[in-house]
Automatic annotation (TrEMBL):
Binds between the large and small subunits. Catalyzes the deamination of various vicinal amino-alcohols to oxo compounds. Allows this organism to utilize ethanolamine as the sole source of nitrogen and carbon in the presence of vitamin B12. This is Ethanolamine ammonia-lyase large subunit. It comes from Pseudoroseomonas cervicalis ATCC 49957. Pathway: Amine and polyamine degradation; ethanolamine degradation. Pfam families: EutB. GO terms for cellular component: cytosol; ethanolamine ammonia-lyase complex; ethanolamine degradation polyhedral organelle. Its EC number is 4.3.1.7. Substrate binds at R159, L160, Q161, N192, E287, D362. Adenosylcob(III)alamin binds at P193, Q245, S295, M401. It is an enzyme of class 4 (lyase). One of its GO terms (biological process) is ethanolamine catabolic process.
Length: 456
């Protein structure tokens, strides 16, 4: 049991899972699940108790029993004791202080990353203000590569998301060119298919491959279909670059997605066997989001942010090119308003980067949430300062297939301009070769004849 005295009142927390849940910032999902603190006083008391907890407690007390959950087994079996050694004698509060110390630089953070468990990352995030999350994330550098190099200092990549409600190739092509002409797509051109059958997924993959070859674009493409579809596409000779899969932080939640760790390993090996990368061999693309395990009743009584961090423990095992949280996509039942979405986005980015992941964020919300585009502007800007690897952008910030609001190509251009951020170097070189940037490196308006020639 964990105890704390706050405001003259003694608070008792039955176990580690309860302590973590009560220490979490307020969010609707934890409240609906009956896990949240009953008052602000209890929340502060939980954080006080959490700050005194040794980090080794997370190695001794598995939140989900080892025998019941393959994610727990993965986290504990892959823990790097040598990397953890500098942190072994620290409490969660000490860990926070160490992370914020100016002497703790990118190299130091990268060195300890294999020794930090997802639960440790979640715990320390609960003691941090938003500015703390931004400050530490900004020191974490995770670089990956396939045909472009993602995560280099001073650069911000984008996923170009040209979704279409009927998978019309002309509509997808129009949205793709719209993004390319505005400097998006250096992380990936990724389509969420409206029709998730194998022939359609192959057709979309082949269309993107033809586009890449025709214009010699240094890019990677991905049709965000189920991992079993990707395996079938590879078996049929389709030009698959990245294998996508939504993942969660418990074995039961992943079973709801129809995946196991062994299936992910099979897919990774199949994609790497194609050897389609030119600057790297990171072939996996994972998507996560707070509330996924809770919505499937597969959270084992854990708060949604801690379960989310455990999903990053899964992702880390597969050396992905890209990982992103779709932070506001699941809805207000889990993140009620702009404030909760903003906090969750910073938490997810921080925890992923701390664990050594190439983190991106879909800065987004559903139209029945208490949020608007001003909230997304704020989160986008904070993530830019925090060194996010990539953001997702769609035409006009409105995904007409998934029916939610995200960022636009123009939003990312504005952010790059405000913060002086470049793109993936290979993609920048292509834009220059296509004369799509001016001498100052800004996207320029094309003459009508030049645009017509490019579009064909």
């Amino acid at each position: 049991m964990h105890r704390s005295l706050a405001g003259g009142e003694r608070h008792v927390f039955a176990d580690l899972a309860t302590l973590l849940a009560r220490a979490s910032p307020r969010r609707s999902g934890d409240e609906l699940a009956g896990l949240a603190a009953e008052s602000d006083a209890q929340r502060i008391a939980a954080r006080m108790a959490l700050a005194e907890l040794p980090l080794t407690a997370f190695l001794d007390d598995a939140l989900i029993p080892y025998a019941r959950d393959e994610v727990t087994r993965l986290i504990l079996d892959s823990h790097d004791a040598a990397a953890f050694a500098p942190l072994r004698g620290k409490t969660v509060g000490d860990f926070r202080d160490w992370l914020l110390d100016h002497a703790t630089d990118s190299a130091a953070l990268a060195a300890v990353a294999p020794g930090v468990t997802p639960e440790m990352a979640a715990a320390v995030s609960k003691l941090m203000r938003n500015q703390d999350l931004v400050a530490v994330s900004g020191k974490c550098r995770v670089v990956t590569g396939f045909r472009t190099t993602i995560g280099l200092p001073g650069r911000l990549a984008t996923r170009l998301q040209p979704n279409h409600p009927s998978d019309d190739p002309r509509g997808i092509a129009a949205a793709t060119f719209d993004g390319l002409l505005l400097g998006s797509g250096d992380a990936v051109i990724g389509i969420n298919p409206a029709t998730d059958n194998l022939p359609n997924c192959i057709a979309l993959t082949e269309m993107l491959e033809a586009l890449r070859l025709r214009h010699a674009i240094p890019m990677q493409s991905c049709v965000l279909t189920h991992v079993t579809n990707s395996l079938a596409m590879i078996e049929r000779g389709a030009p698959v670059d990245l294998v996508f899969q939504s993942i969660a932080g418990t074995e039961a939640a992943n079973a709801g997605f129809g995946v196991t760790l062994s299936l992910l390993r099979e897919a990774q090996a199949a994609a790497q066997s194609l050897q389609r990368g030119t600057v790297g061999d990171n072939v996996m693309y994972f998507e996560t989001g707070q509330g996924a395990a809770l919505s499937a009743d597969a959270h084992h009584g854990l708060d949604q942010q801690t379960v989310e961090a455990r999903a990053y423990g899964v992702a880390r095992a597969f050396r992905p090119l890209l990982v992103n949280t779709v932070v506001g996509f699941i809805g207000p039942e889990y993140l009620y308003d702009g404030k909760q979405i903003l906090r969750a986005g910073l938490e997810d980015h921080f925890c992923g980067k701390l664990l050594g992941l190439p983190m991106g964020v879909d800065v987004c919300y559903t139209n029945h949430a208490e949020a608007d585009q001003d909230d997304m502007d704020t989160l986008m800007t904070l993530l830019g300062v925090a060194g996010v690897n990539f953001l997702i952008a769609v035409p006009g910030a409105d995904d007409v297939m998934l029916n939610y609001q995200s960022l636009s190509f123009h939003d990312v251009l504005a952010l790059r301009g405000m913060l002086g951020l470049g793109m993936a170097p290979e993609f920048e070189a292509w834009l220059d070769a296509m004369e799509l940037r001016d001498a100052a490196g800004r996207i320029r308006e094309m003459a009508p004849k030049a645009a017509q020639a490019l579009l064909g």
